[in-house]
Every structure is written in structure tokens, then in C-alpha cells.
Design a protein that fits this description.
The structure is a homodimer of 265-residue chains. With 265 residues, chain A is α+β, with helices and mostly antiparallel strands. Chain A has helices at residues 13-22, 46-58, 124-132, 138-142, 174-184, 232-241, and strands at residues 36-45, 65-68, 92-96, 99-102, 115-121, 148-154, 164-172, 196-197, 224-229, 246-249, 255-260. The A-B interface holds A 46, 49-50, 53-54, 57-58, 65, 68, 70-71, 78, 156, 158-159, 188 and B 46, 49-50, 53-54, 57-58, 65, 68, 70-71, 78, 156, 158-159, 188.
Chain lengths: 265, 265
């Protein structure tokens, strides 16, 4: 993912969605429409939706729900009235039986009348608050993806959905980690406070230099790794469950809501 | 409801549940097993459970979920491992097509393999915190039920479930109301902060002296009514939806979990 400090940095959520809908914007949403809540997307048929909703309810730190649509209706009425989740993301991923089969820019012809869309809160919300507080975010300084790791922390299972929590990592001094924890306590609907800091092996991470997703970042002397529950968790869990069909956003290509970050406090 | 300051005031949650299971305790749970989180119960068949779970997710202030069971399993594994929701409440209510048909002390023979049980947070949690802070609770001083009112605040609908929010009311001075708001902000899973204070008509309450549920309490000079979203809301909404079958606790006869009030912070 490259960060997009373009003309879209100050775009409204609706402008961004309109461009995505028309196919004029198919890129990553990091650094655009700043201040608007962005969300991970998971779409499942209603037959699997109860178990997935229960999974999110039982695992609110990795799966903080921002909005859930009525079955068959692609409009997220609460966080973006008038939007259409079949067209308004820059790029999608289509999984059949857990295998990635396509990365289209819309899912109009795929959409089924029993599909339910889940929008899950995203780290951009608390990262914006950390940046505003002057705290360092190494992956943004370096213009790369945040490093993410599979842990040995088991999520609470729900029906067909189970698996380990995935975490993102940001290096900080202990004093910065404490300040970040304080700030993130305001954002329970965007992963909230960290789930661990310090020794990576305590949560089953063998090699901090080799993330499972994203890019490695250096940890400076005097810094410790700080770990947050990550919105990749629900996608990893769904892939492992191998439902007949599932649609998500392509990583980094998030849904941009009308809500402002402060609305999630 | 009368308040029970008996020998059970300091009982453990398990002792209380064991007595309820054996039929030795069939009373109200207010003032017993103090410090343990108590919860409202709603049981629905899985066919209606997705819409109800979605309703709770969309309306977290009246419907803060404490635990949701796997379909067919009456054990609330997270908040009370080993407990049995078919037997461990003092008294139940059985509704068929929205009509109250029975108030049994267990539902062992009724229970079906597709039933899902929802445990919804309860005002006792924040009331305990308010009492510990020295704030007055008029209905407890008077030994009566808290007054509850239907409002004109529409809940966010989900499928078959829709209807107005029900609120509970506690009279306080403005300074006490501010302190209570601060304290309750710690308990998002037990209704959280008030939803209104002052003029009852602003939320559609015509006569504060005539509550829709519970008992009227006097408001002293210098006090204002302070309103919290109430756990009666999901029950009222389910009754209005008239599912073929629904089981709840009898009002005041709550499920007592192993969790302590501080665990909900």
C-alpha cells in the first residue's frame, strides 16, 4: 500500500465514493478523505451471517462493528445513507470456498438478495488521533504497510468461525505507549486500547522482523513493540471457514463512511 | 419488586443460581449477590435470532449484550461457565405470539435445540456504582421499582424488531446528574450514560407521575428527572413483534453472572 497524499486528502466521503462508483478511483484509501471513518468490508449470505455477527459480538477488539446492513440491501443506512456497497469501494476481493478468485472494482452482477454486509472499524481512526497527538507511526513515516502478525491468542469462536487474533504493531517508547493507550481508550469502535506491549513471544510471535502481512518496520533503541487487535482478523477467520462465497474489500481499499473519527468516541 | 436485603445479599453468583436451580429461590434478585453483574434474558429460536442480534448491535444503549449462547446450548460460557439458563433464573415468562402464557420456575421441558439465549446488561450494575459514590436512588430509598416510560425515541429497526425506546428515571440535582453521567460513562455494557435529562416531554413522556412500568417516585425541589435507556426495551420490542415463542426472565428475577460489575468497565 502506498499512501495517497493527493488531491483526495481533503475530499469528502461522498466525493471519494462517487469516484469509486464511477471507476475513476481504484486505489488505496489511506491518507484520503482525512477525518472520515473508514471500514473493512465482509459480505456473507444470511445463512452464515448470524454466526459471523455473533463472532463480532464476542470479539469486539478485532471486530468492532461500525454498521451491518439488512439482508439484500447494499445501503449502509447508518454510516453512509445513499451509499451502495456494491460499487462504492475502490476494489473488492471475491473468495469462493476460501480461495481468492477475483479482484473486481464492483460486485453489481455478483450481489444476491440474501447477502449481508458487515463494516468493521479500522485502525486509521485511532492512527489519526495518535498523529494529531504527535505520536510517531513508523510505517507512515516510511510510507509502507503496518506490520501484522498472527498470534496465539484464540478468538472466541462462534459457529463455523474460529481462529487466532491478528495484530498490528507500532514501535513506541514506553511513555508513548502509555499515551497511545490513553488516547485509544476513546475509540472502542476502532480496535480500542492495545492488546499487548513488549515481548512478542508472549503472544506467540516468533520473529518480529517477519510479519505475516504488511511490511517489517525497525524498532529503535528505547522502543518496544505495541500491538493492537487488527481488522484483518475477521477476514482471516472467514477465509479459514471457507464459506461457498464471501466478498471483502481488497486490503487498503476501504469503505469511506460519512462519520467523522470523533463520532466513534 | 421488593428489595431483598436478606442472607443472600452477600451470596456468590453460583450459590444464588444453585438455589434457583433447585427451586429453593424464586424471588427477585435486586440486592442479592451484590457486586455481581445481573442480566435480562431473552430466548428466541435461531430463525429470529439474527434479526434480534442485529437489533441489539444497532441499539447498544437499551440492549447492551453481555453474552449470547450458541444455538441449542443453554450454557452462557463466557459470563457463567457451568450455568444452565433453563433452570438458573428464579422465574421465567413464556410468551406465545406476544401473549404471556406462563411464569414457570424452569423451562427444561420447553427448551428446543434451535434456541438462542441473549443476556442483556442491567441497571443494577451502574446503580451499584452510583450508590458507592453516595448518589441518591429514590426508588431504592423507597423500596419500590424504578419508574419506566415509553418514549418517542425510535430504536433503529432490524428485520421484524422495531419500536420505541423504554427509559428508566432517577431524580437528581443537576450536580448529581453530572456526576452520575461521569460514573456511568464507565459502563457502556450496562446502559452507559443517560440518554436525556430535564423536560420529560422532549422525549415524549406526557406525565412523569404515571410511569408505563414500575412505580412513580417523587421529584424534590431542585431535582430534575434523569433518564437512562432501559433493558425493558428489547422485551417490549419482542412482544410487539409477536414471535411464535419467546422466553424471558420475569421482571426483577434476573440471571446472576459470575462477572463482577468492574468487569463491565
Amino acid at each position: 500500500m502506498t499512501h495517497n497524499f493527493s488531491e483526495l486528502h481533503d475530499a469528502t466521503a461522498r466525493e471519494l465514493r462517487d469516484r469509486a462508483r464511477g471507476g475513476a478511483f481504484t486505489g488505496v484509501t489511506c491518507g484520503i478523505a482525512m477525518g472520515h471513518v473508514q471500514a473493512n468490508l465482509v459480505i456473507l449470505p444470511k445463512a452464515e451471517a448470524f454466526d459471523f455477527l455473533l463472532f463480532c459480538q464476542r470479539n469486539p477488539k478485532p471486530c468492532p462493528l461500525v454498521d451491518v446492513t439488512d439482508a439484500g440491501n447494499p445501503e449502509p443506512k447508518r454510516c453512509a445513507p445513499g451509499a451502495d456497497l456494491r460499487t462504492d469501494l475502490p476494489r473488492y476481493r471475491v473468495y469462493r470456498h476460501g480461495e481468492l478468485v477475483d479482484e473486481p472494482t464492483d460486485i453489481v452482477t455478483l450481489w444476491q438478495p440474501d447477502w449481508v454486509a458487515f463494516l468493521v472499524g479500522c485502525s486509521f481512526t485511532f492512527e489519526n488521533a495518535l498523529l494529531q497527538a504527535g505520536l510517531p507511526l513508523r510505517h507512515i513515516e516510511l510510507g509502507c504497510n503496518v506490520p501484522m502478525y498472527r498470534t496465539n491468542i484464540a478468538c472466541e469462536p462462534a459457529g463455523m468461525f474460529h481462529g487466532p487474533m491478528v495484530v498490528s504493531m507500532r514501535p513506541m517508547t514506553p511513555a508513548q505507549a502509555i499515551r497511545a493507550t490513553h488516547i485509544c481508550s476513546r475509540f472502542a469502535r476502532a480496535h480500542g486500547t492495545p492488546i499487548h506491549l513488549g515481548d512478542p513471544s508472549a503472544i506467540g510471535i516468533r520473529d518480529i522482523a517477519r510479519p505475516d502481512f504488511g511490511d517489517a518496520v525497525p524498532i529503535a533503541p528505547g522502543e518496544i513493540p505495541v500491538f493492537w487487535a487488527c481488522g484483518v482478523t475477521p477476514q482471516a477467520v472467514v477465509m479459514q471457514a471457507k464459506p461457498a462465497i464471501c466478498v471483502t474489500h481488497k486490503p487498503g481499499h476501504m469503505f469511506v463512511t460519512d462519520w467523522k473519527d470523533v463520532d466513534l468516541e
